[in-house]
Specification:
Largest sheet: 10 strands, mixed
Number of helices: 12
Distance between the termini: 19 Å
Radius of gyration: 19 Å
Order of helices and strands: EEHEHEHEHHHEEHEHEHEHHHEE
Strand content: 15-25%
Oligomer: single chain
Number of strands: 12
Length: 382
């Protein structure tokens, strides 16, 4: 199997739902990232062999294979194909895995993997319309929404509301500090956006983090999914709009083109998990990917575990024995937002840049997914 490297990566700043990207079509948003990715890598669009994008709510402007339409909007030649995939919150991370597998097997040399989601213009679950789960499914499993899953995890791991809110406050504080120190500037593609008042501005700073949040504010929020529960809007990920992508190559092709890769993909894993708890998959996925890489969690310099809800990374820390000082060090989805299909490569891009800043070697990315699944990826900085 051939070695797969990441040559370049970039993302948009993440906007709140109905925020600064509300008037931006998601196909055009993805096109901006695809175009910038190629420009930063200084390679030819003609040489790209596939564009694989994750997108969860494939309806309206996100329907009709948005990977293909975005590539055409971005000016890729017609011979460059595109495909859109849905592995729920890990869709763009799965896009990386599929692209890496194509390269490792020798089928391709250059693949773009990424994702896009406008939760403003294609609201979550709008593609499901009035459909209900199959009775054959519900007779076999307790099918609940993710908020109830998060409540069940909090109860099973005996997390208190105070612990969840404290973690959430930390996410905002870390994100605000990262933005203030310019840590995200290099990875973000500035975008000119029209606002509701008709003015234009350059959107280049993540919109979600709140400087003014505090523990008493979080404690005052009502629970959303369960009376006397623990999950609120404050300790859950924000609904968001955004796009992200990475450029994958075989190491041989990168050498041929005279490019210096940023990282190599050391190992990939995907698992199924309990469809009722649903969000615990990153624990098993982490164990699996570490075994495949013949590494331990102590070898990881940083890890990104998506903050779908505060109990998710806390349960992961509890069961893996991870170090809080290595986890989501620049904030996570509770503060920065979670544009479903884009989150995987968004976090991967941020992880690569963080490893570069600290001169770290290994990074781990793990994301929980709807109906009980998770992807995990280990990268090695080059």
């Amino acid at each position: 199997m051939r070695e797969v490297v990441i040559v370049e990566g970039c993302r948009t700043a993440v906007a709140r739902r109905k925020g600064k990207l509300a008037n931006y079509r998601p196909d055009e948003l993805a096109a901006v990232v695809l175009d910038e990715l190629i420009a930063r890598a200084n390679v030819s669009k003609e040489d790209v062999e596939d564009v694989i994008l994750g997108c969860v709510t494939q309806i309206n402007e996100q329907g009709g294979n948005i990977a293909r339409t975005a590539a055409l909007i971005a000016g890729f030649p017609t011979h460059v194909p595109g495909v859109t995939i849905d592995r729920q919150c890990g869709s763009s991370q799965q896009a990386v895995h599929f692209g890496a597998q194509a390269i490792a097997s020798g089928d391709m040399d250059i693949v773009i993997a990424g994702g896009v989601e406008s939760m403003t213009r294609a609201p979550m679950f709008s593609n499901m319309k009035e459909a209900e789960p199959s009775e054959k499914l519900t007779s076999a499993y307790e099918i609940v929404n993710q908020g109830i899953s998060a409540e069940k995890i909090a109860d099973k791991w005996k997390f208190t509301r105070e612990q969840l809110d404290a973690y959430s406050l930390q996410s905002h504080q870390r994100a605000v500090a990262a933005i203030s120190s310019g840590k995200y500037e290099r990875e973000i593609v500035p975008i000119e956006v029209y606002l509701e008042n008709g003015t234009m501005e350059t959107f280049k700073i993540d919109e979600g983090p709140r400087k003014d949040t505090a523990i008493d504010i979080l404690a005052g929020l009502k629970t959303v999914f369960k009376d006397n529960g623990k999950i609120t809007a404050g300790n859950a990920s924000q609904m968001s709009d955004g796009a992200s992508a990475v450029l994958l190559m075989s190491v041989e092709k990168a050498t041929e083109l005279g490019l210096k890769p940023k990282a190599r993909i050391a190992a990939r894993a995907v698992v199924g998990s309990d469809p009722t708890l649903m969000l615990t998959g990153p624990i098993a996925a982490t164990e699996k990917v570490l075994n495949k890489a013949n590494l331990t969690l102590k070898d990881m310099d940083r890890y990104e575990v998506n903050e779908a809800f505060a109990p998710v990374p806390l349960a992961w820390l509890n069961d893996t024995g991870g170090d809080m000082e290595k986890l989501n060090v620049n904030g996570g989805a509770i503060a920065l937002g979670h544009p479903l299909g884009a989150t995987g490569t968004k976090l991967l891009v941020s992880l690569i840049h963080e490893l570069e800043r600290i001169e770290g070697r290994y990074g781990l990315l793990a994301i929980c997914e709807g109906m009980g699944m998770a992807n995990a990826t280990i990268i090695e900085r080059l």
